[in-house]
Known about the structure:
Radius of gyration: 25 Å
Structural class: alpha/beta
Largest sheet: 10 strands, mixed
Mean pLDDT: 94
Distance between the termini: 52 Å
Strand content: 15-25%
Number of domains: 3
Number of helices: 12
Low-confidence stretches: 1-19
Amino acid sequence: MNRVLSTLLSLACLLGTLAAKPNIVFVITDDQGYGDLACHGNPIIKTPHTDALAAESVSLTDYHVAPTCSPTRAALITGHWTNRTGVWHTINGRSMLRENEITLGQLLKDAGYETGMFGKWHMGDNYPYRPEDRGFTEVYRHGGGGVGQTPDVWDNAYFDGAYFHNGTIVQAKGFCTDVFFEQGNAFISRCAKEEKPFFAYICTNAPHGPLHCPQKYLDLYKDQDDRIAAFFGMITNIDDNVGKTRALLKDLGIADNTIFIFTTDNGTATGEKIFNAGMRGKKGSPYDGGHRVPFLLHWPDNGLHKKLEIPTLSHAVDIVPTLLDFAGVETPRGLAFDGVSLAPLITDGPRIRWRDRFLITDSQRVRDPIKWKDSAVMSEHYRLIRGKELYHIDNDPGQTNDIAGDHPEQVAKMRAFYEAWWAELEPSFAQTTEIVLGHPDHPEVSLTAHDWITSHGVPWNQRHIRNGLMNRPRQQPNAKAQHRGHWAVKVVTPGTYTIDVRRWPAEAEHPISKGLPAGADVPGATKAFRAVDGKAFAVTHAAIALNDQEVAKQAVPDDATASTFTLTLTEGSHQLAPTFTTASGDNVGAYYAVVRKAKD
């Protein structure tokens, strides 16, 4: 009886501890810059709900990320430098988060949290890189880096799309941002009803292009250029959803013990034409306009419900250790972060003395990292750009006056820090992130051209697929195309595999050699990816190369939707490259392939 009583008391203590843990709602938008908020001085944009959040939140006003989306998300979810995680690009097989990385979702799940991810993941679409493989138990997302990109459900656009719900494709009604927030809010409501602490990671693909949004939001900016109207319209739509989610938390009675965070993944993609908060550069740039973004944190139960601006330099790698501290979750033994916990800084604000440190961000966007490429070494007062240009950010926030020649000692210090950082990370660059074949948790693997490893053209969105993008030499537009790329795969169960090689994805179920009519367009400033005709290829043969050697080839009938091969694959790493040969002699990489382990 005493043992039973002791067990019950222990369980009660555990449940009490879990109930006391703060909930976390983390909203991150795509391609929205620091200046794309009214509270930061933008004279045109309408963001009343985010402005209200800023008026009662801690704001990190010198917070930095990577200049593009996947790298930021990798740093944000792991607490590690993007280049350490294997994610230094958004395509090319370099956007998949290495298997050895432990995510915030996994850490919070292990600590008793319910974990949900909604919207844009962009760190892998196959096992073991999907969010459901990385600690998230409720997942509702699009494929790739955006709605309508190559790994996404075929012919998706921003309205009435189909999404992956815990691995199953489901149809949805409405604008994509509204759908992702609705799914996140349903998860929040369920967890609140069950009195379970939760981490809701709500990641919009808006306002990333293509520039589409509901007509009523376009009408708010009818006096602006079409692109600005759509870009700002998407942001105002996000803002309305932020307001709805905050209202829901209040209605559920859990707002006070919920950490609510709003941030973005890189500098503005479009809004700099109107306002850029005095910064130089935009998305992709090593200057502050490419990577200094908003970060708002609201948590009433911890006294974080009044406006407080903290100008201390900080970075996405700091967020995991910070949230673990706030949640009372111990860091597992052996796990070290590249960032530091900002909890003392956020809690004590101006009263705390914070050490100066160096931080690095860079924009690689290449197959293999290049030293100093589009890099910024940052300190509280200086920015070293590409290892050569030096700016005093306090005196010159627009980064117009290069003072490197006047301060060689500062340049030397910052270069030395970068050199040591590069030397530490460089050995890992050759560790190619591989798509796993033959794992029982993922018996059918869909490969897409988005993840081709190549130094040449990558068809990363469905317009590229429809246009029939080929690896044709730029200097020789009339030369025959020759596919120069592969998928990096790792076979974990050796044996016989079937490989369906496709021009069009399985959902389209369309003949390889036939074209496709254009799909319907949607409201906005640019065409939907599907709203162009699909080019026909007169394909005669399909072939598969394995590790640079052709291992199989066969004729393709006119009405075939796939060319199916049966191969014996050995355990280990391989370079898989299916191709089509056309009647005109072009060698075209297969945009899609579906791989299955044959039954023994």
